[in-house]
Design a protein that fits this description.
Elements (H helix, E strand, L loop, with lengths): L1 E5 L2 H15 L6 E5 L6 H13 L7 E5 L1 E3 L10 H13 L6 E2 L8 H17 L5 E4 L21 E4 L2 H7 L12 E4 L2 H5 L3 E6 L5 H9 L17 E6 L9 H9 L5
Parallel strand pairs: 1-10, 2-3, 2-6, 3-5, 6-9, 9-10
Antiparallel strand pairs: 4-8, 7-8
Bound molecules: 2-amino-2-deoxy-6-O-phosphono-alpha-D-glucopyranose.
Amino acid sequence: MEVLIVPTPDDVAVEAAAMVLAALPAAGPGVLGLATGSSPLGLYRELGRAASSGSLRTAELSGVALDEYVGLPPGHPQSYRATLEREVCDVVGLSRDRLHVPDGSGADLDALTAAAAAYERTIAGLGGVDVQILGIGANGHLGFNEPGSALTSRTRVKRLSDRTREDNARFFAAVDEVPTHCLTQGLGTILSARRLVLVATGESKALAISEALEGPLTASCPGSVLQWHADAVVVVDEEAGSLLKNRSYYDASAAGLPGR
Ligand code: GLP
């Protein structure tokens, strides 16, 4: 695991974008795993710049979302499909036709379970994810894998925790309007990506980052699965990294990274 602690959220965006670009294939189709949330917005802006300057080829790029709410009407502005179309397709230049999002429109558990299995097949059909962009919830969740999620889980229906619904209520008129369930890639699905790049900024993420990086590998902190991945990169600003104990080692290691 590489941990980069940089001064500002803008620095997080620049450094994380470099880590993402380096993990995409130099030629042929690439598959980018996409997270929603405010954390990766600067990173998407940087990828948009890279696309404009020609260092990111979007023509053959596919996007694969981590998760989707269950039960929002098609086209709902807070659905993750609509969010990613606005915040990634329109910014990076990724074709909407090559944006893949789990289908949360199923009317019952059987339909949603079938959609989850279909999503796993979609990812496999693309040849897997080259680099998965991740944020982290204040409770340590990845995607919508809440504390207690199986470490080997695949895409499935999950209930959202009260904490997550409260955190996401800012995107809805009231907390009661936040869906109770979602389809989310499992932690095992996320671990199957060839590289993970997690970004976090601000004091509200400091505890989750310290537990994910320096606590035990445990379902109680889904973000701790990064410790299990052979190519995980974590880029945080000073505030999000403020509770990390091994800071001096991370800084020394980062300074020695080729190209830095
Ligand atoms: C949502 C998403 C996660 C995201 C998290 C943090 O719950 N499902 O993928 O990491 O929010 O969001 P933010 O970056 O806005 O703090």
